[in-house]
Amino acid sequence: MKFTRRAVEHGVYVKGDIKKDLLIICLYVDDLLVAGSNPTYINEFKKIMEAEFEMTDLGKLTYFLGMEFTYTIVGLMLHQRKYAGELLKRFNMTLCNAAKGPMEANLKLMKDDSKEDADETTSKQIIGSL
Q1: 89 close to 72: Cβ distance less than 8 angstroms
Q2: pLDDT in tens, 58-82
Q3: Cβ atoms within 10 A of the Cβ of 27, count?
Q4: Which of 21, 25, 52, 112 could form a disulfide with 38 if both were Cys (CB 3.0 to 4.6 A apart)?
């Protein structure tokens, strides 16, 4: 269909020109995200794909590859609210105190010998999840 695969991201294919009729396809295993500057071209692409493959059109973008999208007055907002909530539940932190940053600025840490050492595996799981 004369798409060009992007060199930096092999799952992204582009057709057309940004000034006219741009069509962008993001492909990951069996998930397909279609975006473009011309709704007619998007619909034509979807018809071709539906004729060739068994597909379901989920409508406007709300969720893709673990990322959530919300439509606002100023545009599309990308977030991971659900994932963050699942992490808090998984590590029993739903009642933790909120903070703007990961750590208080200029905080001096000291070892508390009266407490048990933190579980190294759990700490690695939390960091890996972030």
Answers
A1: no
A2: 888 898 888 899 999 998 899 998 8
A3: 15
A4: 21
